[in-house]
Backbone:
């Protein structure tokens, strides 16, 4: 994980159970492990972009399946991603320009599409 972002995440979320779980799950991870996880996330976002490009809506079964996949990926690799924490991520994907810009590398509007799909998924 980029050291700059790691420090920011720790200062914002360090006291949460999710962050403590993240530290336990990633304690032995190398930079290559973090890069592989980032590639995995980007792969899911690329699938969201493809789903959007094919005309699917955020509430479509395809998009909702991808939200479930995203939630599972986060849970398996970082921390237990509850619907509540997923909903917060969905907001952050569009509210934080860094996230939006990175996700939109897969296609313009992908971050907004993901955010809307998460909102539907979480009710």
Residues:
């Amino acid at each position: 994980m980029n050291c700059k972002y790691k420090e920011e995440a720790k200062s914002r979320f360090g006291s949460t159970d999710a962050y403590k779980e993240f530290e336990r799950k990633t304690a032995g991870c190398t930079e290559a492990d973090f890069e592989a996880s980032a590639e995995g996330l980007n792969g899911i976002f690329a699938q969201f972009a493809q789903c959007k490009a094919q005309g699917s809506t955020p509430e479509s079964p395809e998009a909702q399946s991808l939200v479930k996949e995203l939630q599972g990926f986060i849970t398996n690799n970082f921390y237990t991603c509850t619907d509540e924490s997923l909903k917060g991520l969905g907001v952050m994907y569009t509210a934080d320009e860094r996230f939006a810009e990175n996700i939109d590398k897969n296609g313009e509007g992908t971050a907004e599409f993901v955010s809307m799909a998460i909102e539907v998924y979480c009710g």
The first helix runs from residue 3 to 13. DSSP finds seven helices and no strands in the chain. Helices lie at 3-13, 17-25, 31-53, 61-77, 83-95, 97-103, 110-122. Residues 64 and 121 are 6 Å apart (CA to CA).
